[in-house]
Amino acid sequence: MTTGAVTGRRGRPGHSLESLLDVAVAAFIERGYEATSMDELAARLGITKSAIYHHVPSKGELLRLALDRALDALSAVTEEPGATTGPAIDRLEHVVRGSVRVLTAELPSVTLLLRVRGNSAVERAALARRRAFDRFVTDLVRAAAEEGDVRPDVDPAVTGRLLFGTVNSLTEWYRPDGGLSADALADALVTTAFSGLRAAPR
């Protein structure tokens, strides 16, 4: 996670930057970023606003750091060897599996990211990074079609949106304590998306 200079700051015992971000993300999801005040965050943490400002200079910085949790992890997936070498269809599957892994590990931050609408400079920067990820996926779909592994009669951008629309929908129902591991979830998604729902002929 990219946190910049603020990572070296320390607050009162029991309230690290990480725990502060956890509380902030939960509040932003529950109430919305604009409706969540620093006073409310301080109350949830049981500290003063000045203790929060010891970690970050503004609420906007909290939002940036929270979104970077998800975006940095997704960007890292696109830089892994499995996403950069080999047949495009295998690279695409690697990115899908990695994205599911990110979603399960950073569920609150990914949920928050998917609710960003570009209402501030921080949100617009996050959306720009999301678009870069979408272009990466589209390029993989296009390459896989050119290699003969993905049907060419569907626009690669549409295929990418449908595929990652499915991945993103996991935020609506996936629960870490539900007994389904990240690997099992990725296996199910890849099987249905890449092989289809229809069973093999008997």
Features of the shown structure:
single chain, 2 domains, Tetracycline Repressor, domain 2, mainly alpha, Arc Repressor Mutant, subunit A, 202 residues
Task: Report on the architecture of this protein.
- This protein is mainly alpha-helical.
- The chain folds into two domains: 57 residues, Homeodomain-like (Arc Repressor Mutant, subunit A); 130 residues, Tetracycline Repressor, domain 2, CATH 1.10.357.
- 66% of the residues lie in helices and 0% in strands.
- The chain has ten helices and no strands.
- Helix 6 runs antiparallel to helix 10.
- The protein is elongated, with a radius of gyration of 19 Å.
- The N and C termini lie far apart (49 Å).
- This is TetR/AcrR family transcriptional regulator.
- InterPro entries: Homeodomain-like_sf (IPR009057), HTH-type_TetR-like_transc_reg (IPR050109), HTH_TetR (IPR001647), KstR2_TetR_C (IPR041490), Tet_transcr_reg_TetR-rel_C_sf (IPR036271).
- GO terms for molecular function: DNA-binding transcription factor activity; transcription cis-regulatory region binding.
- Keywords: DNA-binding, Transcription, Transcription regulation.
